[in-house]
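Journal club side-thread
Mid-discussion, someone asked how the predicted structure for our own chain would compare to the paper's figures. Pasting it here so we can look after the session.
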Amino acid sequence: MISQFLHIFLDPRTLIMTLGAFGVIAVIFMETGLFFGFFFPGDSLLFLAGFFASLHYLPLWSLLIGCFVAAVVGDSLGYAIGRKIGPALFTREDSMLFNRKHISRAEHFYEKHGKKTIILARFIPIIRTFAPVVAGIGNMRYKTFISYNIIGGFVWTWAVLLFGYAFGSLIPNPDRYIYPVVLIIILVSAAPALWEIFKRRG
């Protein structure tokens, strides 16, 4: 039962075919708003959702609006968690669903890039889950946070969804290339975090 659940939620294509637009929107919310969300494949999921929308399996406008709202609300929840129980997170024991290293990595990214982290983090797995938590811990003014949150949520969801939609609409026989493109998206989105890890160990 658990393995079936994980297969549905961690495999973008299976999730889309099983749960449709609602599943996509729910995962975007969970990835940005809940600690265990860093497991989810946000970038590749958005791309594939846009691709399936180009084939008329999913409603494009529902995805654009729903995923944008889910991303903004999810980040706001992360901010609220950081603001409310932030200090306690650094004394909490590591578990399968929570690791203090993720908070520390997001904090380092936040120190380096400042407020624009809320926008940049959208395109980096794991960092995008914990960056709003760090913003809450750091007591960033909510008015400032929500502004960057809205911009980042809009750019991330619409850019990746529309990229997937354009790919399916403009490329002849797009099914032949879909998995290589998804793999490239995963590698590109993970590259900044991998580079930071490499530099720290170098």
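Post-session note: The mean pLDDT is 80.
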